[in-house]
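Lecture notes, continued. The same structure-token format from the folding unit now serves as the input rather than the output. Read the line below as a description of shape only.
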């Protein structure tokens, strides 16, 4: 059903029939979501199956049942997927749309890709307003890849609102059912789109059902807008199996890099940032624990079979993977950089580095505090020097930054 183009995205004057009384109530709505990586210690969207993600910040319309003939209200739901409503007794439909999930000056547009074309997606649920109604919760049953991702974008905005994710103002477009190669979801900067592959992980759920994977790719989108990219590559030069990605093939995912592979500083930091971003989306950043759930197999020992995903990693406490298995200068491990970035940014201790400050530090390390990085090489000494200049030598925030780098094992 086409959405009328002349309906503004704001609260509309009520167009209800001349009935009375008007019933004041709270309307809350959800997406029917099922994430393959839920229930492993994260704080948000943590139900295993038959879960419902709040339709947080989603554009909604309330209409006649199955029709656009009368639109009673339109706007955006709040962080809980709720809104105050006043309607006469009767039956209605509430529509939620994946292509307009918005808070403040940030909008996520999630489109279902079919035949190379963008399609906005929606769910519609019937509601009944009675004379004693005070609260209505909707629990729809329709689920597809765009709805899965819309549930995630609402949570991204919730955490951006609550603790800051460094998301620059603007519109962020996401294509689902469109990858960047076999088993490969990504953010593509040349067309400024996050692409979520239709492929499965290990023959199971598709990429859109792995919420940490989706949030990771959104993190790259935010990273590119906020600071650009420093120089990076994924040349895997270690001879230690635990620091490579040879233990899986593209049946499971892209194996050019993985959370345990030893890479250039730039590659490990690039991916570690996106892991940190996803960790901040699904964990309370004021708690002294955090889970990052991974979506590729992991090799704990060369003498054992790799462990398949989902795999919960501790984002809060250091893992020291490179120092344990394959220490080398000017190299890094994504897991260690996840621990560093989460360690400097969480609010469980004082003197945290915000994501926005981290972007400023990187831009300074790239040579121009006023311009995004453009693939300049940033090693650890550049980064810590930029942080010292940004905060000042005697700043307690810089002290935490420096100490956390040593504790996480990224200062090589």
């Amino acid at each position: 059903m086409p959405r009328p183009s002349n309906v503004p995205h704001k609260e509309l004057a009520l167009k209800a029939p001349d009935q009375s009384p008007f019933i004041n109530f709270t309307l809350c709505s959800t997406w029917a979501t099922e994430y393959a990586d839920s229930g492993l210690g994260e704080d948000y969207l943590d139900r295993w199956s038959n879960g419902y993600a709040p339709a947080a910040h989603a554009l909604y319309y309330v209409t006649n049942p199955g029709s656009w003939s009368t639109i009673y209200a339109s706007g955006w739901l709040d962080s809980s997927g709720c809104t105050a409503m006043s309607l006469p007794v009767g039956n209605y439909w509430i529509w939620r749309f994946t292509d307009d999930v918005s808070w403040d000056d940030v909008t996520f547009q999630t489109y279902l890709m079919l035949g190379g074309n963008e399609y906005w997606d929606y769910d519609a649920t019937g509601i009944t307003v009675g004379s004693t109604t005070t609260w209505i919760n909707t629990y729809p049953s329709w689920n597809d890849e765009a709805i899965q991702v819309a549930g995630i974008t609402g949570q991204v905005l919730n955490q951006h609102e609550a603790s800051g994710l460094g998301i620059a103002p603007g519109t962020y477009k996401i294509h689902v059912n469109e990858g960047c190669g076999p088993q490969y979801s990504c953010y593509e900067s040349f067309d400024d789109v996050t692409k979520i592959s239709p492929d499965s992980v290990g023959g199971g759920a598709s990429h859109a059902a792995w919420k940490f994977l989706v949030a990771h790719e959104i993190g790259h989108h935010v990273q590119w807008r906020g600071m650009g990219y420093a120089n990076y590559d994924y040349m895997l030069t270690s001879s230690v199996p635990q620091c490579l990605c040879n233990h899986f093939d593209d049946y499971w995912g892209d194996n050019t890099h993985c959370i345990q592979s030893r890479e250039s500083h730039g590659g490990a930091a690039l991916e570690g940032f996106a892991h940190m971003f996803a960790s901040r989306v699904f964990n309370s950043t004021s708690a002294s624990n955090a889970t990052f759930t991974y979506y590729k197999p992991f090799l704990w020992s060369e003498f054992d079979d790799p462990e398949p995903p989902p795999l919960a990693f501790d984002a809060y406490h250091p893992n020291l993977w490179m120092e344990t298995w394959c220490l080398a200068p000017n190299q890094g491990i994504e897991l260690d950089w996840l621990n560093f970035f989460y360690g400097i940014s969480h609010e469980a201790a004082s003197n945290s580095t915000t994501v926005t400050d981290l972007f400023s530090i990187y831009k300074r390390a790239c040579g121009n505090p006023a311009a995004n990085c453009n693939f300049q090489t940033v090693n650890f000494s550049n980064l810590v020097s930029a942080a010292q200049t940004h905060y000042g030598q005697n700043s307690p925030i810089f002290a935490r930054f420096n100490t956390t780098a040593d504790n996480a094992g990224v200062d090589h």
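Point for the exam: The chain has two domains: 22-157, 207-408.
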